[in-house]
Design brief:
CATH topology of the largest domain: D-amino Acid Aminotransferase, Chain A, domain 1
Keywords: ATP-binding, Cell shape, Cell wall biogenesis/degradation, Cytoplasm, Ligase, Nucleotide-binding, Peptidoglycan synthesis
Structural class: alpha+beta
Number of helices: 10
Shape: globular
Main location: cytoplasm
Largest sheet: 6 strands, antiparallel
CATH superfamily of the largest domain: ATP-grasp fold, B domain
Bound molecules: adenosine-5'-diphosphate, magnesium ion
CATH architecture of the largest domain: 2-Layer Sandwich
Helix content: 25-40%
Order of helices and strands: EHEEHHHEHEEHEEEEHEHEEHH
Number of domains: 3
Protein name: D-alanine--D-alanine ligase
Family: Belongs to the D-alanine--D-alanine ligase family.
Radius of gyration: 19 Å
GO molecular function: D-alanine-D-alanine ligase activity
Length: 318
């Protein structure tokens, strides 16, 4: 459990880092503005900083006491910023270096889960078009092809045959990271929001599109969000426990969002963990928080409290 703060002055001067240079820059700016407004409504001495390539320079000599990090993707969510902040001695929200780096890499995340005996769909790394035949033999079809270190469904595609697999590999190969194919799971999609060692109510996502792609996430009006899910309590609790274990395995702390699917045999499959999830007022963590009775202002306060928990990171459960 984090230290609970009663008085906004105890947070000191807070830098809200947003933007960054990754593909999810625009989403981060929206999240950052929403977080900044909520912190100011809480009478917290917060300053928004839109960082480009160098997130450290604007922090120097400004008398900041802590950082609310809302930079999504590489450079903000992957351990790099976390390492720099550790070196500067500035406390920050969310996971530390190791858990951030592991969670950003979907392949290594899966290796950790597999090692811990947690369910994640079968996969194969695609080094190039020459792996298409082996992949077809090993996984069959359909599969989903992903760049290992992107977010917001960027560069992803479903493939039903070898030609589509080659096309999907081509699309996924432009992101300067490994590419892999994963068995396509037919079933229901859920996300579990984690705050200070506890899971908030699950959300079930429904889209008429092939999957929860960039448009379904940010543009389409046809995406449905079911929160509460209506699952029997026992089932909801079991899935929340699985999400907590998924985080614990990676050493994820503070707050996070775990994406998973449940197939037609009721078997859950872990997909990925976001250690700096979206925080626009349409985002999923705020939606789950609302279902738990937490306003957006209360949620940002609780997330900022996670900056007090440093040292021995990842030792305790989430
Ligand atoms: N194995 C899978 N089977 C079916 N759909 C999947 C699978 N993996 C991912 N998806 C779909 O793709 C979306 C994005 O995948 P995810 O791994 O969560 O990447 P991102 O980091 O971009 O959110 C998921 O929300 C889900 O709709
Ligand atoms: Mg996801």
């Amino acid at each position: 459990m984090n230290k609970r703060i009663q008085n906004p002055a105890e947070f000191g001067r807070v830098a809200v880092l947003m933007g960054g240079a990754a593909a999810e820059r625009e989403i981060s700016l929206k999240s950052g503005q929403a977080v900044l407004a909520a912190l100011l409504n809480n009478n917290i001495d917060a300053v928004g900083i839109d960082v480009g390539e160098n997130p450290i320079e604007p922090l120097l000599g400004q008398g900041f006491d802590r950082v609310f990090n809302i930079i999504h993707g590489r450079g903000g969510e992957d351990g790099v910023l976390q390492g720099a902040l550790e070196a500067l001695g500035l406390p920050y929200t969310g996971s530390g270096v190791l858990a951030s780096a592991l969670s950003m890499d979907k392949l290594r995340t899966k290796l950790c889960w597999l090692g811990a005996g947690l369910p994640t769909p079968r996969w194969m790394k695609l080094r190039g078009p020459e792996d298409a035949d082996r992949c077809a033999d090993f996984l069959g079809f359909p599969v989903i092809v992903k760049p290992a270190q992107e977010g917001s469904s960027i560069g992803m595609g479903r493939a039903e045959n070898k030609n589509e697999l080659l096309e999907a590999w081509e699309r996924a190969s432009h992101y300067n990271c490994a590419v892999f194919a994963e068995t396509w799971i037919v079933g229901q999609e859920y996300t579990a929001s984690i705050l200070d060692g506890e899971a908030l109510p699950l959300i079930r996502l429904e889209t008429p599109r092939a999957f929860y792609d960039f448009d379904a996430k940010y543009r389409a009006e046809t995406t449905r969000y079911h929160c509460p899910t209506g699952l029997p309590l026992e089932k909801e609790t079991a899935l929340q426990q699985l999400a907590l274990q998924a985080c614990d395995t990676l050493g994820v702390t503070g707050w996070a969002r775990v994406d998973f699917l449940v197939d037609q045999n009721d078997q859950p499959w872990l997909i990925e963990v976001n250690t700096v999830p979206g925080m626009t007022d349409h985002s999923l963590v705020p939606m789950a928080a609302r279902a738990a009775g937490l306003s957006f202002e209360e949620l940002t306060w609780r997330i900022l409290e996670t900056s007090f928990r440093r040292g021995g990171e990842g030792d305790a459960a989430v």
